[in-house]
Amino acid sequence: MAITLTLLLIALLLFLGLKSVCAAYAGGTSAGRRTLSKLSRWEQKRTDAWAAFPLKQFLALTARLVYLDEATAAKLRKTLFKAELNITPQEYTARKVLTAVFGICLTALCLFSRFYFGIVVALLLTVYLLMRQRDALNAKVRKKDFQIAQEMPRFVRTICRSLQSNRDLESVIGAYRKVAGPELGGELDILLAEMKSGNVQIALLHFEDRLGSPEAFRLCSALRDMSLGVDQTATLEFMADDMARQARENVKKELSLRPGKMRRTYYPAIGVCIAMILYVLVVYVIHNLNSIV
Predict the structure, then answer these.
(1) Which residue has the higher pLDDT, 110 or 15?
(2) Model pTM?
């Protein structure tokens, strides 16, 4: 029975893997076109599986049992805030714990039923889910950093020109906020709120810490000096030109990496196909040897 299930699963995965490889090699299929046409609807209908019953209850219970030291929790909290995920570090870690527990239970079930190929599939599925969770978080952070870096030259150049006629830093940043992009605009909202309620120097330090980029460090250093009366117009102009050049380099780098990323999308399918073929050969050889003995 286990051998029959194994062969059926191999046949299914082999079919899906070969289909993915052929589609990627051909450069597009009707299925691919249907996928592209439904992207917007998928985006609207996408729901968080962790918010559904009973995963939500399990997640809340596991989050209470998760322990994170203060430094790790602060670093993870900063990353989650930058990725705009409204969850705590304990909840994010609890998701990984529950995924690992699910993989262990599935592996134990396959081992108990002597479905040995299922053990490999369960382990690969667990690793895939853990890597997907990590990559999804990193992708959101990289996307936000990229968007902010692309807008930063325009932001610096606008501030530089505005400060020549108006030395009120808060009003200059508030004026730019009306035309800012969504990523940088959210950070400017926090900056303006802190500038109105507290010290300008502290607000700029917090803004620099949230962005965490060399460009933000240079900009906030110059703005702190200007808030103290030091003229940094020439520095801001040079900074804007340098950031614009760096933004163009980032775009070229992103475009150069896309062909490699497209090729890597079907590498896992090729690996799965090779692994399944080798497994079939090994099972066949072992079965024949048992028959001879």
Answers:
(1) 110
(2) 0.65
